[in-house]
Amino acid sequence: MKIDENDTFSKKLEIVIHWSVRALSILMVLVIVMGVIDVAWTLYQKLITPPLYILTISDMLATFGAFMAVLIAIEIVINITIYLRENVIHVKIVMATALMAIARKVIIIDADTADAMYIIAVGVVVLSMSIGYWLIHQLPRKNHIEE
User: Fold this and answer.
1) Strand partners of residue 69
2) For the chain, how long is the longest CA-to-CA vector?
3) Three-state SS at 146
4) Cα–Cα distance between 28 and 22 in angstroms, integer?
5) 127: left (phi over 0), alpha (psi -120 to 50) or beta
6) Nearest partner of 88 among 22, 26, 13, 144, judged by Cα
7) Among 39, 44, 41, which residue's Cα sits nearest to residue 65?
8) Strand pairing partners for 89?
9) pLDDT digits (tens, 9 = 90+) for 2-16
């Protein structure tokens, strides 16, 4: 969205938003670093408890979930970086990040304890997001950007 160059109030708001987004990106990088440390520490703890150097299926699923959470945070930083660079929101990248987040949910879901309606709802979200992403992917590149 372009700001009217003659409107000083709008220009000041744009500056505040720009610096706020920069602050959010710095905070998100800290979250990523803490997430990587947490994944490493959790993995280390799982490997040193008996049976040594063996991960159970639930340990692996928890680790995959933690990895995916860090990857989602990285995708969010990429979204922020692109926004700062181009001052536009790329819908396709946001949709890909959302797909990754719902994929994380699918990976860590415990089908034995989850309610059937919850699993159906997650399935509907996966299907809807996938169709939406496919539809956006079918558009020419210039239409992926919200202006």
Assistant:
1) none
2) 69
3) strand
4) 10
5) alpha
6) 144
7) 39
8) 146
9) 666 778 998 899 899
Q: How far apart are CA 9 and CA 59, in angstroms?
A: 53
Residue 25 tokens read as 């990106």
Q: pLDDT tens digits for 96-123?
A: 899 989 988 888 888 888 999 999 999 9
User: Judging by DSSP bridges, how do beta strands 145-146 and 89-90 pair with one another?
Assistant: antiparallel
CA 74 – CA 69 distance, rounded (Å) = 9
Burial label for 76, CB within 10 Å (0-12, 13-18, 19+), is: buried
Q: What is the pTM of this model?
A: 0.74
Tell me which residue of 147, 67, 71 sits closest to 108, measured CA to CA: 67
